[in-house]
Write a structure and sequence with these properties.
Elements: H1 11-14, E1 16-20, E2 26-33, E3 37-52, E4 58-70, H2 74-80, E5 93-104, E6 108-117, E7 120-132, E8 136-147, E9 163-173
Antiparallel strand pairs: 1-3, 1-9, 2-3, 2-9, 3-4, 4-5, 5-6, 6-7, 7-8, 8-9
Length: 174
Amino acid sequence: MTSASTTVPTTTDYAGTWNLDTAATTIEFHTKAMLVVNVKGTLKAVSGTGTIGADGTVHGTLVIDATSVDTKINKRDAHLRTADFLHTALYPTIDFEATGGRLLKSAKAELTGLLTIRGQTRPVVVVGDVHTDETSLTLTAEIDDLDRRDWGVSKAAMGPSARNRIIIRARFTK
């Protein structure tokens, strides 16, 4: 594999099957509650795989445990698990299925796929930085304007802003 810091990798540098290292993967979210309270939290990845063809085709999955939502305030976390928000009793996972992708300049990748939250699936495009070494690939991506209303998460008490920032650092190994 080619180090991302020295040259722009090619699709053949990434070709193969990759498995998510859940212990080295982080998912953070940032939002505002009632227009003034900044809320930061985390979720845990439970599984994921990716297959990259020599021609650059991408297919893969990332499964996130919605019940793992953690904002460091137990009462708020319990409320986020209710039907007002994530409804984890019916939808215990958040799923991303990569259906396509391509390398961009300077070790960046663009993934297209389907994001399922609360049983509702919507298309998303994720652009991130790719770093590799001999045995791992790490994708760091930020989604700055994810509107939770698109997935039926629209609790009025949260205020008119339904925008969320998501930061994903997913580490995969061959």
